[in-house]
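dumping this here so i dont lose it
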């Protein structure tokens, strides 16, 4: 099987797992010890990453009907390793209120070929997508604003962490 096709097929399983609310199907494309650097959460590594992701999916599927769309920008193969990046667009419908929401994130993944499982994700990074802008507009905005948030990426309170500190 062509490697690019195999990775696309794995991403289809990922997407189908959301449609079926099947956390194990979603998790099936991840290494048992992957690095998870998901937006808005602490980073997790090794088996912790899968347990935290499983808990997130369990809660998500309990409260929402989920539809995942995957837009792959590119897949770059390098022997038994690969990189891919693009967008995940998650449409959520709350099961009690029927309120719909859409979450669009940019993602970057590293993959490895596993002799038993095929292509699996070894690291995952994402963040919330931004409205597209021309580079010139972003540069002009940075030069003209008095707010340092875009430049330093620090929150209003000046914390080194974007999430509020918990005691």
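and the seq i came up w/
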């Amino acid at each position: 099987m062509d490697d690019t096709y195999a990775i696309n097929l794995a991403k289809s399983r990922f997407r189908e797992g959301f449609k079926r609310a099947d956390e194990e199907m979603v998790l099936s494309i991840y290494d048992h010890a992957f690095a998870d650097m998901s937006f808005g959460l602490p980073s997790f590594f090794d088996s912790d990453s899968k347990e935290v992701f499983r808990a997130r999916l369990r809660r998500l599927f309990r409260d929402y009907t989920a539809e995942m769309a995957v837009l792959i920008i590119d897949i770059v193969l390098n022997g038994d390793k690969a990189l891919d990046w693009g967008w995940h667009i998650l449409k959520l419908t709350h099961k009690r209120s029927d309120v719909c929401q859409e979450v669009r994130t940019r993602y970057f993944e590293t993959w490895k070929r596993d002799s038993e499982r095929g292509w699996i994700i070894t690291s995952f990074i994402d963040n919330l997508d931004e409205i597209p802008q021309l580079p010139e507009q972003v540069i002009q905005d940075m030069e003209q604003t008095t707010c340092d948030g875009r430049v330093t990426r620090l929150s209003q309170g000046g914390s080194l962490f974007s999430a509020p500190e918990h005691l």
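The longest helix spans residues 3-20.
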